[in-house]
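To the wet lab folks,

You asked to see what we're planning to order before we commit. Fair enough. Below is the target structure as tokens, and below that is the sequence we designed to fit it. If anything looks off to you, flag it before the synthesis order goes out.
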């Protein structure tokens, strides 16, 4: 059973930065693609970024490319999402997710159905 715990959300102003963390308790962490999604009120949960099992490859949604950076440390079973130049439209609950399978590579078309484990989410609110 995979457990994911996100942290680092909060209330910030437009243009600020935040770094989200996701701590994973899973023996196969270092063999899984990890990803970040977000869900704004009344909207579907959207893919943001994913990182390969060894951190060697990443993939981003166009909406965050160049502003957000995903990274991981397999020794710490942790994945991060560095968010810069935040905008009010980035306001959402942010979720960490672990791939259902092992040894895959991240691609920008990954969807919720590709991931089998989810954290509880952390709220990010960006004021204008």
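Sequence we intend to order:
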């Amino acid at each position: 059973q995979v457990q994911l715990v996100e942290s680092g959300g909060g209330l910030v102003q437009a243009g600020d930065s935040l770094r989200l963390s996701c701590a994973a308790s899973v023996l196969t962490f270092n063999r899984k693609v990890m990803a970040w999604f977000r869900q704004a009120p009344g909207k579907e949960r959207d893919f943001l970024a994913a990182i390969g099992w060894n951190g060697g490859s990443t993939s981003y949604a166009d909406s965050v490319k160049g502003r957000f950076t995903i990274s991981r440390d397999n020794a710490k079973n942790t994945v991060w999402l560095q968010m810069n130049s935040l905008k009010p439209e980035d306001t959402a609950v942010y979720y960490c997710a672990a791939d259902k399978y092992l040894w895959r590579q991240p691609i920008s078309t990954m969807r919720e159905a590709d991931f089998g484990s989810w954290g509880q989410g952390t709220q990010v609110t960006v004021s204008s």
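Structural context that might help your review: The longest strand covers residues 18-25. The radius of gyration is 13 Å.

Thanks,
Computational group
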